[in-house]
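fwd from M.: "can u put these together and see what the complex looks like"

so here's what she sent:
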Amino acid sequence: MSSTGDQENERNAVGEDAYDGSDIYAEDGSVRSDYLMHVGAAIADRDLLYLRQHVARLHASEMGDVLEAIQPEQRRALVSLLGEDFDLSALTEVDEAIRLDIVEHLPNEQIAAAIGEMDSDDAVYILEDLDQEDQEEILSKLPFTERVRLRRSLDYPESTAGRRMQTEFVAVPPFWTVGQTIDYMREDDDLPESFTQIFVIDPTFKLVGALDLDRILRTKRSVKIETIMRETVHPIPAEMDQEEAAQLFEQYDLLSAAVVDENNRLVGVLTIDDVVDVIQEEAEEDLMRLGGVGDEELSDSIISTSRSRVVWLLVNLGTAFLAASVIGLFEATIQQIVALAILMPIVAGMGGNAGSQTMTVTVRALATRDLDIHNAWRIVRREAGVGLLNGLLFGVLIGIVAGAWFQDYNIGGIIAAAMLINMIAAALAGITIPLLLDRFGADPAVSSAVFVTTVTDVTGFFAFLGLATWWFHVS
Amino acid sequence: MSSTGDQENERNAVGEDAYDGSDIYAEDGSVRSDYLMHVGAAIADRDLLYLRQHVARLHASEMGDVLEAIQPEQRRALVSLLGEDFDLSALTEVDEAIRLDIVEHLPNEQIAAAIGEMDSDDAVYILEDLDQEDQEEILSKLPFTERVRLRRSLDYPESTAGRRMQTEFVAVPPFWTVGQTIDYMREDDDLPESFTQIFVIDPTFKLVGALDLDRILRTKRSVKIETIMRETVHPIPAEMDQEEAAQLFEQYDLLSAAVVDENNRLVGVLTIDDVVDVIQEEAEEDLMRLGGVGDEELSDSIISTSRSRVVWLLVNLGTAFLAASVIGLFEATIQQIVALAILMPIVAGMGGNAGSQTMTVTVRALATRDLDIHNAWRIVRREAGVGLLNGLLFGVLIGIVAGAWFQDYNIGGIIAAAMLINMIAAALAGITIPLLLDRFGADPAVSSAVFVTTVTDVTGFFAFLGLATWWFHVS
């Protein structure tokens, strides 16, 4: 113990609770401030005893939350103080920027040693972000089989099942009995850290079936594996996109699935915990794309955040100037009736809101595959109906308010008609634009919003100002 | 067989493939049109042989997709033709409206019989949507223990772990050996359909530990359960919100977790497949709420869809009139310089886009708990920096274009300044509004967009028109 002051006693007393794990969190789910204070003080004091007792033994995901909550200098100091006691799998739980920063400050020897201990999917997760040179150096320090396995995973493209899979699995031949299988598992030291099914393979490693552990436990020792295995096992080709693989997991409620190469040879296993991450990421991606932001992270700098958002704003700027030029066509009308300038953003804005409602539903339904050719036409009709109904409702409402405001029921009638037109346009744009983008292989989440807004702005301004010009005979 | 024409032979030939399961899907993930045609024809012909062979044997989720793809009358006919062969768990895979429609057309006897066969979580999923009377009638037809179990689940509020849990589980006392446990599983007929861990309980049903199946399989028969069980098992209180429970699953990579009552007695088990659904739903909810739509489903009618979207549009209408009244303050200025009316939507619109970028990131980060008190201040500063940077960039850009368009560099300068002001306002509103809403216990996804748009519209119009009025000395 490096010191025995009161402060440290208190730290250890609180730490006693903190070590329990779930207790490091406050009620709102953030890491407790007092715990972080103690950790910070322990880092400053180089209090290894406290750090080993109360930080090193956290669950990897808790450690990840702690790393994200403390300052960058504290992070590096903590990792270097813990040395071998730092569990590198915590790095799979933090932002990419933080992961890279920590890894850069670690000696390659230490990374290699840690990676040798990890499940291959976690190891790949950390290795894939490193530059070629560091990757090679670390791989070269690993035992041969380990190295070959990790290289194979890394050879598969990003976002494929092959890249995400774990290469440790249990596989037995079909002619073994339940008893032999259990004995094998009792004796073999080289089993994966945890598993929920075993695979059945032929001598050439070709997948012939799978078997859940509960099935083995319910069956008598003398029964042959081939008589109780499942033959329909939804094997996942290693080249399959992770999103598609995730859909298979959801559809068939899988806990894990065999990953096979082009010859149907078993090369790894994809597990539900990785798939849950994929599902989260994909849902997040749609939400971020609809909001006009890419895959930025909270730890990104001002410059890189700004840069990643500029493209979307630039595209929208084009749309905005297009809408402005539509208004420009009616300069003379606005000069005569300024009320039009005051009211026109209402028509365009309400159309934009209605359009984005329809678009949100459509994009989500396409992502979950609830919307397809069998019901597309029915949904288009429904949306047109909703647009008509809400157009009538809001047309009348806005017409009355605007008419009363400017004491001119001509204007009220004109805005009502324009609203109706724009709400129907919004509904049709909101459904057809994502459908068409999807049909032509574009991601509807990325680009739908720009097109829909263009339609509702242009239609809104054109309908409102055009009707007014015609009605009031402005020339 | 009801007929032996060529058409039917063809149907059966194609059906031979179709039965395989994965083959009912076309490449884009929708159900194959030719398969649906055959199913439709078989329903019309009352061809029971085909339906039993090629439809009844589908996986529940595949059956769900088929039910969603065919017409309502076909659906009811199919279910009634299949009778006892129809697997009711397919109903857990379809839209609520479709589920209710089918259940209403089924006799309560058949529902009760099917529910007796199901896992309790699926049974509850179907029962919870029924009205009190039908629910009671069905429950009364079930055996006592079954009835008590289902009632207990139904007594927990919607969206809690208790409502989602499965009441079938395997539990053993701590003093049993691995051998005894395996023998028990080999002999007991009343085990759950599938399971990945067993629980360890004391004589009063209090939870003392848990054990993954792979651990049992690796351990010698003579070893006592208490020596190999895990004691930290993250038990989930039955009253816990399902979203919170899902976060525990994600954090600790759980496959299943014990659900306990207020006395720490084991009442059920929550499994990862239910949690995946919760994660999906929650992610979907945020996306839908940001887009201004509630929990509508694709099968909803025009009227109910229209009604569910009206509230959001009404709130936005208030905002739109507020923005319009800001423009109204500067009527005289617009009358003199119509160019302002043409350009003002650009200032407001670009601010709105920038604001919703920041807001999207913030809402998502709050939902995933990546944003909390430890980094909030840093992120606010970052967003302000991004707003300043993009404000300068787009201010200059728009200023040059607008100045050139109207051949008036006063207007260019004014719009540049207004853009800068609005982009900073957008960034600050985009980050602080969701943070404040979250702080005060409101759901930031539901209401952030309205407030942010209000800020960017009002600031945009006020800054642009106000600066112009001041600069050109309009009185």
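replying to her w this: Residues 376-406 of chain B form the longest helix (31 residues).
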